[in-house]
Amino acid sequence: MPSADSSGPVPRNRTKRPRVARRGTGRAVRGTGRVVRRGAGGAARVSGGAVRITGHGARRAFLLARRASHAEGAGESGLARLLELNAFNAAGDAAVAVALAGTLFFQVPTGEARGQVALFLVLTMLPFAVIAPLIGPFLDRFRRGRRWAIGSTMAIRAFLCWVLATSVATDSVLQFPAALGVLVASKAYGVTRASAVPRLIPQGLTLVKTNSRVSLAGLAGAALSAPLAGGLALAGSEWTLRYAFLVFVGGAILAVLLPSRVDSAVGEDAVAMNEMGGSAQRSRRLGLTPIVVTALRANTGLRGLSGFLTMYMAFLLRDRPFAGWEDRTTLLFGLVIGAAGVGGTVGTVLGNWLRSHRPELIVMAVLVADAVMVVAAALFYSLPFAVALGLTVGLCQQLGKLSLDALIQDDVPENVRTSVFARSETLLQLSWVLGGALGIVMPLQPRLGLGIVAALLLVWLVTVLRGRTTIKRRQARLASSAEAAPASRD
């Protein structure tokens, strides 16, 4: 019998263990591989399905948006292209607003920011106030200029957004002039676009409904762009501004591709800006009834209040935020201004619903509602009242604008209707600028600042009502004099 240490054959059970281990390991590896392959295949199928579903949804949304923009003859008249253009404009403006809310208004000390904004507002807005009234006559004189003028406002904003993105990244002094230059170009876009809208109205649509569709296209563009801009802002405001650059470049291309009828002025007479002042003789010659002049004056008050609210709240909510919101001033400002955007959307829907009612009564009612809401916000200043103020201002501004469009459509002669509409838009844009300037210089004490604005708005309301009575009396006197002249000659 061999000894324990003698060499001999290794027991069989000792030789099988490593083989069994190897076979078990191989089976485990092969099983794991099969599981991984199946899991990867399933993940790929799920991912592919998700991509297909997402792509299908995006394609479906695009087709629905295109169908809506081309409905009721908008595709044939060229209005669809203007709707797309206005969506791009609102998308770019929303991106700029998101970028500025996180940089200029909320990172610079309040006193320094107000001083710089006021200075650059004077330097940039005053030239705009002088040039804007000349845009319409310039476009009336030179044919084939409107599309390029609209495109220029887009191209200028694209360039300034790129400059602003670089200056924000490097903390350059060019931030404020570039930002306010974007604001000026945005106001100029509103003026130049107004000259194109009446020339693209489809057969069977009114100016009111056309403007409602243009406004809705802008709201849709802003609603889609704001979340994307907010996501990019997490990586830095400069990326939001570069995104705005791309949007405005696309808008410039769309502007140049507008139909050629935008440049046509066949059968139209031009109206000078000084003829929109509401004097009885000029108003009578242009066919501007006292109701139209009154609605225009009321809308200047509505638009001025909108500009005031934007600028004033940007600094007030940052300097004196509500309790519990000290670290979320950007969100707080977004709530108030976002409420104004919601109000604009509701106003557009209500404007279509109320179009059969008397627009002259609506425009005065919304001016009164604005004045009452500002008084209430001044007396009971709080977050709910601030949000309610934004909602009311947006709602009343949109209803007032649609009512003015309805009156221009019904009461102004066709040969001067386009020019009157464009000049009215110029006055409204300038009113926003003046309201914004007032918002910058107003003291950052909510009850005092809002109280002063409420008093000014009430004075303007009385002035508008008295002006309507005066114009009606003078026009009646001119009409009686014109009837008496032939009788005296006879």
Account of the protein in words:
The protein is built from 16 helices and no strands. Helix content is 81%, strand content 0%. The protein has 2 domains: 75-266, MFS general substrate transporter like domains (Growth Hormone, Chain: A, Up-down Bundle), CATH 1.20.1250.20; 269-482, MFS general substrate transporter like domains (Growth Hormone, Chain: A, Up-down Bundle), CATH 1.20.1250.20. The longest helix is centred in the first third of the chain and has 58 residues, at 12-69. The chain is an all-alpha fold. The protein has helices spanning 12-69, 74-77, 79-101, 104-107, 110-141, 146-170, 175-194, 207-233, 237-256, 280-286, 290-319, 329-353, 359-379, 383-411, 414-441, 446-489. The termini are far apart.
Annotate the secondary structure layout.
Elements: H1 12-69, H2 74-77, H3 79-101, H4 104-107, H5 110-141, H6 146-170, H7 175-194, H8 207-233, H9 237-256, H10 280-286, H11 290-319, H12 329-353, H13 359-379, H14 383-411, H15 414-441, H16 446-489
Helix pairs in contact: 3-8, 3-9, 5-7, 5-15, 6-7, 6-9, 7-15, 8-9, 8-12, 8-14, 10-16, 11-12, 11-13, 11-14, 11-15, 11-16, 12-14, 13-14, 13-16
Q: Helix tally?
A: 16
Shape field: globular
SSE succession: HHHHHHHHHHHHHHHH
**CATH domain class of the largest domain:** Mainly Alpha
The overall strand count is: 0
Name the structural class. Answer: mainly alpha
According to CATH, the homologous superfamily of the largest domain is: MFS general substrate transporter like domains
Low-pLDDT regions: 1-22, 46-51
> What's the architecture of the largest domain in CATH terms?
Up-down Bundle
Distance between the termini: 160 Å
Strand content: under 5%
Per the CATH scheme, the topology name of the largest domain is Growth Hormone, Chain: A
Helix content: over 70%
How can the largest sheet be summarized? none
Count of the domains: 2
Mean pLDDT: 75
Question: What Rg, in angstroms, do the CA atoms define?
Answer: 31 Å
